[in-house]
Amino acid sequence: MYITDFLNKYKKDLTTRIDDISISLTSGSASDIGHYKAMVGEIQGLTYALEHIQTLLKKVDDESDST
């Protein structure tokens, strides 16, 4: 498996997790403010990781276009 395939699969997994947590938040599944903050924090961390992976994939794509 190429690294880009791995990163694209991982990106999909992160997006799925973000969507799952978002659905849970909007359905009111947070039992208290601490749980709510933890869920929001997880979304923030996953979003950061997703953006970083997208940046890396863009760099790889740009490098392959220039050669």
How are the secondary structure elements laid out?
Elements lengths: L2 H24 L6 H34 L1
Describe the structure.
It is a single chain. By secondary structure, the chain is an all-alpha fold. It has helices at 3-26, 33-66. The chain starts with a helix and ends with a helix.
Q: Overall 3D geometry?
A: elongated
Question: Approximately how much helix is present in the residues?
Answer: over 70%
Gyration radius from CA atoms, angstroms: 16 Å
- Given helix and strand content, the structural type is mainly alpha
Mean pLDDT: 92
Which sheet architecture does the biggest sheet show? none
- In N-to-C order, the SSE pattern is HH
Gap from first CA to last CA? 22 Å
Number of strands: 0
Number of helices: 2
Strand content: under 5%
Q: Which segments are poorly predicted (pLDDT under 50) over 5 or more consecutive residues?
A: none
Keywords:
67 residues, 2 helices, 87% helix, elongated
Brief summary:
With 67 residues, the chain is mostly helical. Helix content is 87%, strand content 0%.
